[in-house]
Amino acid sequence: MTKRLAVWSVRSVLVAMIVSVCVIAVGFAARLASAETASSSVDRSARLVYVVEVHQTIESGLQQFLSRAFQDAQQANARYIVLDINTFGGRVDTAEGIGEMIRGSDIPTIAYIRGKAASAGSYIALSADKIVMAPGSSIGAAAVVDAAGREVDNPKIISHWAGEMRAAAEMNGRNPDIAEGMVDKNAVVTMPQLGKTSGKGEIISLTAEEALKVGYADQLAAELNGVLEYVGASGDTVIEFTPTAAEKLAQILTSQTVSTLLLLIGIAGLAIELFVPGFGIPGILGLAGFGLYFFGHYIAGFAGIEDIVLFFVGVILMIVEIFVPGFGIIGLTGIACLIGSVVMAAFNTEQALVSLGIALLAAIVVVVFVARIFKHRGVWNRFILRDEQKSELGYTSAPSRGDLVGKRGQALTPLRPAGTVLIAGMRVDAVTEGEFIGKDAPIVVGKVEGVRVVVKHADDGGESLK
Q1: What is the mean pLDDT of residues 430-456?
Q2: Nearest to 59, CA basis, from 139, 120, 122
């Protein structure tokens, strides 16, 4: 193993450790910063209303953010929590966790729908104590779909989710049949207030006016002030609880497009540094790409320290494979650790595998392109002997005897067809082209092929060079 490769490997391990420590330190710092309450700078004797945005896909990052908001509101003795909802939905299990958190809170919660409360968003709204909707908003369409957006027709899953929706509606005295109709397209729901019946094959979605008529909205309000007036808190101090800078960054880093790009940079950077060593920059960029990937998922609440540790274990195993060949077992284990850490850190396993697959294919193209340009620096050159000893460079296996062509001499031994001749006072090993030449017979050099001197019988009248 070459010294350069050894230096690179040691450097990679050190950089990996530094990056891992930085990611963990920054992540902890960000979480500690998030834990600082917004109420610390607010007069606790004031009457407070917390307004919390729910304007994103419902996933564990949102659940962590809402948990922080509810804790902050509890510590500040807030009178109300207003959930400003505008979402197309998200994970059912996360919505159930958020709903349980809302129901377990001692602070009354108002769901203020200012856009769409679709799918899992409608469940969060139904879990609140009151629902206020802005004109033009809607609630419902809570059918279960998979990651690709295809409707799930598994009866058990539909029955479970419909039951959760019914329970959330019944808790606050709303018609549970309508909630079931938002989930199950086979449910037949009669809504006399609207003068219509939702038949089979239809999923219920209500406008703000329709929701008010059937009791799925308690009030309509175009602005937040209307919500405050409705609950008698128009004079209260409003605390707009928003995500921290780290949480906003995490939302960007955990999006599928950015995650795929970060994985591409990570895989391509490390592969280029591994197969075309000596640059340093690709390796640093690769580790930075993976670092940002895990940073975003850690802040969002998807990844844990164990995922980051597993990733760097994979990197170290791949480096060990270079020094201690183990028939590929160590390297394959390292690759498995890398893939496992990336997938485990993600919010959605299927989405993570798709992103990883796209990034891997793109990285192969990038690595092949770079390897072709810098092929003279490739690690494979360590195992291939490319030096050539050409005659024009002064390398010869034996002295060239081309100067003997045409010269005459005498056979010192019989040539049958090989033997020894005397030319210009030098003993030379020679051969004939098949003829027999006796001892002391005159000869002439016909040609020289490398170290092979070919002679033939010379006329007696010719000049003999002894």
Answers
A1: 89
A2: 120
